[in-house]
Amino acid sequence: MAFESLSEKLSAVFKKLRGKGKLSEQDIKTAMREVRMALLEADVNYKVAKDFIAGVTERALGQEVMESLTPAQQVIKIVNDELTELMGGEEAARIRIKSKPPTVIMMCGLQGAGKTTHCAKLGKRFLKEGHRPLLVACDIYRPAAVDQLCVVGKQAGVPVFRLDGEKPEEIARQAYRHARDHGNDIIILDTAGRLHVDEELMQELARIKQTVEVDETLLVIDAMAGQDAVNVAKAFSENTGLDGVILTKLDGDTRGGSALSVRSVTGKPIKFAGVGEKLDDLEVFHPARMASRILGMGDVLTLIEKAQDAADEKKAEETAKRLLENKFDMNDMLDQLNQLKKMGGVGALISMIPGAAGKVDADKINESKQLVHIEAIIQSMTPAERAKPSIIDPKRKRRIAAGSGTKVEDVNRLLKQFEQMSKMMKQIKKNPKFLRGLGKMPGMPDLF
């Protein structure tokens, strides 16, 4: 989970502050030393961490905090404000779409950062917003790069322009003409990468920019590379002129140092964050929301947005009706699991709930992994068994367990939970006031 390590350390620092009541100057300085160590251990750039602590300390030692009735809360608010500013300010940086199409976006970066996949992710996002994007294969050097773009483009439902045997700048020129002729309002250029920053790479990017008018140059960098990611961002910013950054694999980086350093070192905003392997796993980077998440305050707005994206209103109404009519079966349960997966799973949702981060022990979060087993168990059932679980006898249980790679006890546990849910729904039908007890359903994981 992104920033998990940093969040835990900062939570520990602030817990000490809250326990002190009134704060002395020495208390604040001691806390800031611990915050600085936490930032450095999270792989934040040294100068960025030093300047950040200086800014927070100056404000924290002011009259506003020292004379406050809740000084610890004031310090946390200052850290939150400064973190938000460090990552780009209150407002999320957006892609500038020209009023006169097409808008040209050039994706650049080193090999292995995920440029090609994120071209498709970005294309799919624009498609959902009502645009007509076109992916352009300008990486003519990496083996199968063009084929890879065609595959992920097809998965995303976005057309791909390829021109074999031509130089990247000529491909970009022809793609621009194609887009104008076919009504594509956004062009996404997938350019070549290298294993390191070199002159040849920079010259190629410059030639593309001279050939077509590039409106946005986005650097795709791997968040897990830590300080190397920041150094790469700085080199590209100085040589090609960036408009923004896409951080990939942010979900796998428990430290998050690159996310906190990139904006300060390059002066360029992080516009998107890759938070998973699926083509839908691309989020607009909101500095204020991310700062809130780091400090364990949750991220309700993103949680609501994820719920809205994942929700199928018609299916939700049908499920509610089936619940009340006591017709809820294993197929319905599988649908609910898929909705949860679309939202990033239990672990991702917990990090967005105010006050939940850091208060849910590891064993409880690990229960979210049981969702994978539950899905496998249900998928190993026959249509008849899903529709009527009561027919599942010991012989069927053994077959389902073997087919799902689980144990018979796991199958029994799921069937028991389903039975308890069915009983509860019967009680609700008889007594609607029973709805108040929904949160205390026996047998189900109690995350909080």
Mean pLDDT: 81
- The end-to-end distance, rounded to whole angstroms, is 18 Å
Return the structural class: alpha/beta
Extract low-pLDDT stretches: 356-367, 434-448
The profile of the biggest β sheet is:
8 strands, mixed
What is the helix tally?
21
**Mass-distribution shape:** flat
Number of separate strands: 8
Strand percentage: 5-15%
Pattern of helices and strands: HHHHHEHEHEHEHEHEHEEHHHHHHHHHH
Largest sheet, order of strands side by side? 3-2-4-1-5-6-7-8
Radius of gyration: 26 Å
Helix content: 55-70%
Outline the structure in words.
This protein has an 8-stranded mixed β-sheet with strand order 3-2-4-1-5-6-7-8, sandwiched between helices. Helix 6 (115-128) packs parallel to helix 7 (145-156). It contains 21 helices and 8 strands. By secondary structure, it is of the alpha/beta class. The model is unreliable at 356-367 and 434-448 (pLDDT under 50). The chain starts with a helix and ends in an 18-residue tail after the last helix. The longest helix has 23 residues, at 408-430. Pfam families: SRP54, SRP54_N, SRP_SPB. Its EC number is 3.6.5.4. GO terms for molecular function: 7S RNA binding; GTP binding; GTPase activity. It catalyses: GTP + H2O = GDP + phosphate + H(+). Keywords: Cytoplasm, GTP-binding, Hydrolase, Nucleotide-binding, Ribonucleoprotein, RNA-binding, Signal recognition particle.
